[in-house]
């Protein structure tokens, strides 16, 4: 929605730009440089130092405590932080393991032999930067600066981003978009004119009915949401879980709908049918705020619960009952948009159905539904203009995915593989804190892209698989040993949080800010790094919002006032939504303009052949992707994944609990490693399930190597969402093998 | 004073945060734990139920471990908390055998170790580390003799059980069901 608040934010930002732009810039920076740097206290001046967690994207703020010898002992949540309310999750509590892990990258490395082999020599930082700068300049001369890209997932991304933009490229992508939450952002933008963003604006705390579709809160430890779900359970909220697997939260649900995988849109359409035809929708809300109700009503007439039963295997009575349950709770109901939603390639449309359902129930902008989140407006120091790139990754896409509001990591990867249609493919990658080998589906394609590169720089704390393909590896210190950009989170109240080092970096490791700035020196781009240290930049930013580094070092988190008190819609409030019609679009004019279905339709997806089972993957609460797979504290809780198999299937294959098997997918890909069988009633007979992030192939990760199977290795069929380029990964089928030898001749 | 803990199985998501928080708070070496999570599943597809329980020493009122300890290392402390005095423990493991809850282990340094209800924190007016960290706030700690303590209040309000009551140990660890 276009809220008053958003206009205010824009104006406050531009004012800051005016004051500090232009000539004042140099004087200000000069003064800062002259200032004695001991003005900022160091980690040793504190018993506890503030940080925000880097183990997942929730970024909870906490305190790092040290023992009497100055050794890191524990990390505890900051009571003032709205993201965690003083309670860290297991990964955050176990974050200490990232620091103590002896398998960490320790010094810069330069490749000595071909990519994919562990052949590196240790290098000095200066050598590493010279090497990178020479290669980047060569790419610039031969192909243009646009032929470079940054993949990032983590806090140091901003500085490598500025470096790349200054160099002349805007190919900056995060796998959290096209591989994760992109479809929901596009679907909610198309419907409400506003995305969901992170942390989600779901008002779970006060909801009376929470509907989860494949979303496994509790196993995905999105801290604030899990805390609020627990509060909602205390207050007697109803939970409805749609999942082919009896997830932890299914165990806390009044209704578990064990849906046949890939048929969710049919269920959603039929819920919409019931809610419209039984007159259960919020009439006043629909009339006042929405566009296209009549078209929607006509559209769903055929989608009766009886129709959906044949597709989803969910009984008509249960579909009706759950729809009524939602309507009874409305508007304090949340049909949760989920987070990792790239499943079948029609994901934007599925999330559109979710958005439409919420609109009919009147939950958007209502207590117990979705609140209007606010983010602090912290001005950034005005940098000189970046050069305008002549082209970017979109040029390689032939006009596809116009509705993608962020760059696609898979698109940038694709734009790297040389093809006759492209004038120039991407020649250099910087990869910061994301293990692309296990993050992007279709590993072969990723490796093909990498082999076509002239330069691959990897910045990481751990020897992840991607480092094995790097030309240069830059070892970053962990989040407990560095400053990073401020955390500026959205929420019911805007908040900012500080991360400062609790201890000096171990080994020869450095923070991303320092690396990016040193590289900028070599590339003659220092004008984009006006502050010599990150402390000075953070202090400058904090002073714009009435705080300072000194204050934040003491308090860690600062909660600011909302600019406008509009957490929920007012009674009969006139609201203009940021869509073409200014209304909540049940019928999407934006999708229609681009030639897509204006209202969601169900399409049938392929099903597994006999002897094959759909591969479903998910999370365990003690791990984040593959990032934590070697963390000593967290592998102590869980050190390998298992494959969940229904007892009927186990009987057919004569599989026993704890037996190890290999998996083979529909394309004949056999897993590198074996996986333990877990025979359980908690999964349908047409599917198997495993936790994502295991089966690491890099021997330097001693605790993670060879433990379990990598679901990513099994995902070779990728169904691309035509609307925004999301990579649907749930259309892969596996069978069991008792050896991993390829018997084909 | 009788310290006790109640754990809400309806809210616990089995994330094991209690385990890792205990490890870092009490310097429990990696590979060992003073608390752990048990998942019990019942039923057949699609009629299923799961119970999740964060378990630890039950700090029994009638503790077999205290009774069988030959040196008196295992003893009752403040509020009935069962503790082991490190330097009096000879590592004979009689207590480990006697405990119906399998709550004790031999620390690599040779003595028997277990949950202390974080007495060092409780003395300072803080909650045990596991209770303080739990994202679902599913744990309640306090004095059973104080009717206004969190644990007394929740036990009054909710249906609950103890583990292996037939062992006659009078456990101080309750599970809300």
TrEMBL record, chain A:
GO terms for molecular function: 4 iron, 4 sulfur cluster binding; metal ion binding; molybdopterin cofactor binding; oxidoreductase activity. PROSITE patterns: 4FE4S_MOW_BIS_MGD (PS51669), TAT (PS51318). InterPro entries: Asp_de-COase-like_dom_sf (IPR009010), MoPterin_dinucl-bd_dom (IPR006657), Mopterin_OxRdtase (IPR006656), Mopterin_OxRdtase_4Fe-4S_dom (IPR006963), Prok_Mopterin_Oxidored (IPR050612), TAT_signal (IPR006311). Gene3D superfamilies: 2.40.40.20, 3.40.50.740, ADC-like domains (2.20.25.90), Dimethylsulfoxide Reductase, domain 2 (3.40.228.10), Formate dehydrogenase/DMSO reductase (3.30.2070.10). Residues 46-103 form the 4Fe-4S Mo/W bis-MGD-type domain. Keywords: 4Fe-4S, Iron, Iron-sulfur, Metal-binding, Molybdenum, Oxidoreductase, Signal. It comes from the Bacteria. The keyword Protease does not apply. Belongs to the prokaryotic molybdopterin-containing oxidoreductase family. PANTHER family: TETRATHIONATE REDUCTASE SUBUNIT A (PTHR43742:SF9), TRIMETHYLAMINE-N-OXIDE REDUCTASE (PTHR43742). This is Nitrate reductase.
TrEMBL record, chain B:
It holds the Pfam family Fer4_11. One of its GO terms (molecular function) is 4 iron, 4 sulfur cluster binding. It comes from the Bacteria. Keywords: 4Fe-4S, Iron, Iron-sulfur, Metal-binding. Residues 3-32, 48-79, 80-109 form the 4Fe-4S ferredoxin-type domain. InterPro entries: 4Fe4S_Fe-S-bd, 4Fe4S_Fe_S_CS, ET_IronSulfur_Cluster-Binding. PANTHER family: PROTEIN NRFC (PTHR43177), PROTEIN NRFC HOMOLOG (PTHR43177:SF3). This is Tetrathionate reductase. It comes from Labilibaculum filiforme.
């Amino acid at each position: 929605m276009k809220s008053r608040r958003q206009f205010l934010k824009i104006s406050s930002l531009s004012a800051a730009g005016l004051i500090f732009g232009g000539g004042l810039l140099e004087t200000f920076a000069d003064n800062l440089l002259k200032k004695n740097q001991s003005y900022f206290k160091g980690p040793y001046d504190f018993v506890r130092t503030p940080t925000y967690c880097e183990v997942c994207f929730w970024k909870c703020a906490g305190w790092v405590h040290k023992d009497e010898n100055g050794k890191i002992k524990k990390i505890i949540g900051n009571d003032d932080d709205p993201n965690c309310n003083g309670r860290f999750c297991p990964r955050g509590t176990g974050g200490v393991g990232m620091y103590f892990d002896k398998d960490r990258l320790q010094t810069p490395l330069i490749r000595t032999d071909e990519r994919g082999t562990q052949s590196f020599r240790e290098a000095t930082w200066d050598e590493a930067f010279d090497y990178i700068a020479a290669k980047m300049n060569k790419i610039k001369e031969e192909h243009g600066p646009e032929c470079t890209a940054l993949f990032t997932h983590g806090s140091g991304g901003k500085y490598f981003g500025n470096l790349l933009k200054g160099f002349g490229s805007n190919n900056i992508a995060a796998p959290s978009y096209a591989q994760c939450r992109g479809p929901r952002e596009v679907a909610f933008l198309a419907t409400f004119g506003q995305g969901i963003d992170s942390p989600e604006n779901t008002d779970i705390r006060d909801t009376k009915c929470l509907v989860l579709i494949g979303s496994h809160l509790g196993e995905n430890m999105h801290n604030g949401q899990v805390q609020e779900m627990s509060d909602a359970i205390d207050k007697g909220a109803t939970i409805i879980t749609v999942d082919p697997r009896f997830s932890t939260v299914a165990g806390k649900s009044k209704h578990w709908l064990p849906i046949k995988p890939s048929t969710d849109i049919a269920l959603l359409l039929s819920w919409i049918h019931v809610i419209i035809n039984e007159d259960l929708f919020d009439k006043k809300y629909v009339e006042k705020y929405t566009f296209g109700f009549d078209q929607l009503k006509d559209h769903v007439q055929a989608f009766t619960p009886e129709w959906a039963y044949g597709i989803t295997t969910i009984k008509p009575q249960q579909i009706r009952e759950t729809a009524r349950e939602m309507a009874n709770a409305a508007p304090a109901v949340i049909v949760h948009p989920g987070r990792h939603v790239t499943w079948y390639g029609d994901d934007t449309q599925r999330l559109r159905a979710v958005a439409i359902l919420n609109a009919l129930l009147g939950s958007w902008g209502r207590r117990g539904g979705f609140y209007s989140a606010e983010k602090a407006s912290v001005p950034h120091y005005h940098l000189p203009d970046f050069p305008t790139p002549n082209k970017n990754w979109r040029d390689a896409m032939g006009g596809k995915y116009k509705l993608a509001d962020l760059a696609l990591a898979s698109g940038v990867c694709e734009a790297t593989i040389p093809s006759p249609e492209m004038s120039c493919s991407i020649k250099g990658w910087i990869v910061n804190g994301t293990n692309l080998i296990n993050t992007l589906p279709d590993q072969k394609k990723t490796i093909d892209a990498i082999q076509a590169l002239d330069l691959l720089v990897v910045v990481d704390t751990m020897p992840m698989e991607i480092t094995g393909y790097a030309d240069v590896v830059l070892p970053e210190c962990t989040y407990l040993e560095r400053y990073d950009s401020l955390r500026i989170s959205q929420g019911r109240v805007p908040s900012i949080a500080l991360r400062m080092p609790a201890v000096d970096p171990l080994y020869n490791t450095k923070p991303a800010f320092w690396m990016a700035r040193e590289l900028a020196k070599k590339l003659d781009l220092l004008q984009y790094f006006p502050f010599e240290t990150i402390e000075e930049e953070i202090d400058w930013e904090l002073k714009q919002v009435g705080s300072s580094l000194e204050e934040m070092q003491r308090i860690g988190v600062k909660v600011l006032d909302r600019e406008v008190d509009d957490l929920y819609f007012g009674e009969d409030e006139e609201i203009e939504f940021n869509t073409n019609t200014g209304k909540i679009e049940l019928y999407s004019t934006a999708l229609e303009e681009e030639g897509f279905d204006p209202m969601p339709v169900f399409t049938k997806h392929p099903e597994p052949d006999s002897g094959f089972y759909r591969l479903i993957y998910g999370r365990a609460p003690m791990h984040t992707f593959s990032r934590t797979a070697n963390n000593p504290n967290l592998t102590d809780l869980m050190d390998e994944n298992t494959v969940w198999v229904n007892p009927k299937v186990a009987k057919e294959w004569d599989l026993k609990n704890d037996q190890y098997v290999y998996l083979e997918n529909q394309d004949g890909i056999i897993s590198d490693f074996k996986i333990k069988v877990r025979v359980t009633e908690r999964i349908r007979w047409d599917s198997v399930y495993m936790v994502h992030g295991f089966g690491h192939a890099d021997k330097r990760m001693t605790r993670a190597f060879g433990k379990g199977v990598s679901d990513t290795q099994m995902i070779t069929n990728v169904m691309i969402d035509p609307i925004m380029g999301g990579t649907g990964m749930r259309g892969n089928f596996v069978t069991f093998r008792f050896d991993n030898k390829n018997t084909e001749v | 004073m009788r310290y006790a803990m109640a754990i809400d199985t309806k809210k616990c998501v089995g994330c094991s945060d209690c385990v890792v928080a205990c490890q870092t708070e009490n310097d429990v070496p990696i590979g060992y734990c003073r608390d752990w999570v048990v998942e019990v599943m019942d039923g057949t597809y699609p009629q299923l139920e799961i119970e999740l329980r964060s378990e630890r020493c039950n700090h029994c009122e009638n503790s077999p471990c205290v009774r069988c300890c030959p040196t008196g290392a295992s003893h009752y402390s403040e509020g009935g908390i069962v503790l082991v005095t490190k330097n009096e423990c000879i590592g004979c493991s009689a207590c480990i055998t006697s405990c119906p809850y399998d709550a004790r282990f031999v620390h690599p340094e040779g003595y028997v170790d277990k949950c202390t209800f974080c007495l060092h924190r409780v003395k300072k007016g803080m909650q045990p580390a596991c209770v303080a960290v739990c994202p679902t706030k599913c744990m309640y700690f306090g004095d059973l003799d104080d009717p206004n303590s969190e644990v007394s209040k929740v036990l009054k309000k909710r249906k609950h059980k103890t583990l292996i009551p037939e062992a006659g140990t009078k456990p101080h660890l309750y599970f809300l069901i």
